[in-house]
Amino acid sequence: MVRMAGVSKRYGTVPALLDADLVIERGELLAIVGPSGSGKSTLLNIMGTLDRPTAGSLHLDGYDVGSLGDRELSALRARTIGFVFQQFHLAPGVPVMENVADGLLYRGIPRGRRREAASRALHLVGLGHRMTHRPHQLSGGEQQRVAIARAVLGDPPLLMADEPTGNLDSHAGAVVMDLLRSLHEAGTTVVVITHDRDIAASLPREIRLKDGRIVSGARR
Ligand code: ADP
Ligand code: MG
User: Fold this and answer.
1) Nearest-atom index, ligand 1, CA of 38
2) For 167-190, what is each residue's pLDDT tens digit?
3) Ligand 2 center to residue 171 CA distance, Å?
4) Residue 7: CATH number of its domain
5) Which phi and psi (to 5°) does residue 30 adopt?
6) Which residues have CB under 8 Å from 52's CB, separation 6+?
7) Structural domain of residue 187, as residue ranges?
């Protein structure tokens, strides 16, 4: 699913990621862990093609990302990856149904079919009864499940989550993790950044970062 070789990322003079070699097979479920500032988000953003590396190569779903132009890369990203972030990133004041359905806007799918897909995804995350609610009418855990519904709408083979339980209490966090596990069981490759040691330890593989370097878990 993902193959990185010698990937580094500098922000000006700050080295955020150094010489990362990493292979993630299709169907894996893994955690990325490490102290704050160790490069976890940088690694995820590069893996997710949201950011380009300063050096090294990245293959995503068999494509050499460095050889793709911005349009080809956006298309590859849209069909390959769903993203979930700590801060949910839902549009305020917009009903849950539209928040999810809009996840397919850039895939040229007509509105009716977007809404059908959104309804299916919301039922999948257990929120079929909340489709006309606005985000502020939902709990944090529910908002994160809406964000997950939006991320998995187009059935991407890869789901990436950056601290998805970081803003949730432990019960809501456990519900979100159960959801990620069931998506993994259904075949999705799932990569989760987490600060939570128990969550990380409960996953089949842990990639550990320190000072921008992968210190363990680069290979299975
Ligand atoms: P983590 O997610 O593990 O907390 P990050 O990947 O966000 O760490 O950051 C790694 C390092 O890179 C940190 O020192 C951070 O300050 C720096 N960094 C991250 N993003 C930027 C940016 N856009 N500009 C400058 N420095 C950045
Ligand atoms: Mg981070």
Assistant:
1) 3
2) 999 999 999 999 999 999 999 999
3) 22
4) 3.40.50.300
5) -145, 160
6) 46, 66
7) 2-216
